[in-house]
Amino acid sequence: MVQTKIFAHRGFSGNYPENTMTAFKEAVKAGADGIELDVQFTQDHVPVIIHDRTVNRMTDGKGFVCDFSLAELQKLRMKEDSSERIPTFEEFLHWVEPHSVYLNVELKTELKDRGEIPELILPLLAKYGVEERAILSSFDHKALHAAKQKKPHIESAALIHQAMMNPSKYLETLGVEGIHFKASTLLMDEVAELQEKGYHLRPYTVNTVDQMNQFFTWGCEGIFTDYPDLALAVRKEF
Ligand code: G3P
Ligand code: CA
């Protein structure tokens, strides 16, 4: 059976401000196999790492990420720790390049961003030599499909947040290698069927010991967790 990889969701977000350089660095220090991060674009088309459409929840500013220039965005400070700010995707790649961890790059795209993924995200993965260990994921399956057409060798996974009919047929049409599913949306036999067909299954967000054991038992390729330290301890005993 494969050993399930542990991806630190938004970095080590259980203990540090999510999607910050500290959360990413602490995830590597803890021994996570991979890092999950959320990418979107500033008004001047720079890919930055933040989950929400707005800066309101995480920073001392207010407004939509896409309405800030990079310079404006970088003046904002994280509410949880004023020494932290929103990282750029390139800053992250520059740091992560020497660390041997997998990267799950979640594309938080909107319709207008789709053209920017091939132009602004994919070349950066090549520039930093991380294509082989990167996974592109998105709830925007059209954007994912377009990225796949452009860079077929980069692993891609469709994000889903609810149950769906005939997922394997859908994944085949989409041409992706994996499915990242909300932990409660797929049953064991559905997961097994997809795995038998060779798809990579990775549930989110897996934060309890029971859930961790469940997905380790199911032989999922990976899990996304806010607590990579806990998941590593559970996996050790598994
Ligand atoms: O990539 C898995 C998970 O991060 C998707 O949901 O809302 O946490 O970005 P969300
Ligand atoms: Ca995410």
TrEMBL record:
Highest rank taxon of the organism: Bacteria
PROSITE patterns for the chain: GP_PDE
InterPro entries the record matches: GP_PDE_dom, PLC-like_Pdiesterase_TIM-brl
Pfam families, alphabetized: GDPD
Domain GP-PDE: 4-235
PANTHER family the UniProt entry points to: GLYCEROPHOSPHODIESTER PHOSPHODIESTERASE, CYTOPLASMIC, GLYCEROPHOSPHORYL DIESTER PHOSPHODIESTERASE
Listed name of the protein: Glycerophosphodiester phosphodiesterase family protein
Lineage of producing organism: Bacteria, Bacillati, Bacillota, Bacilli, Bacillales
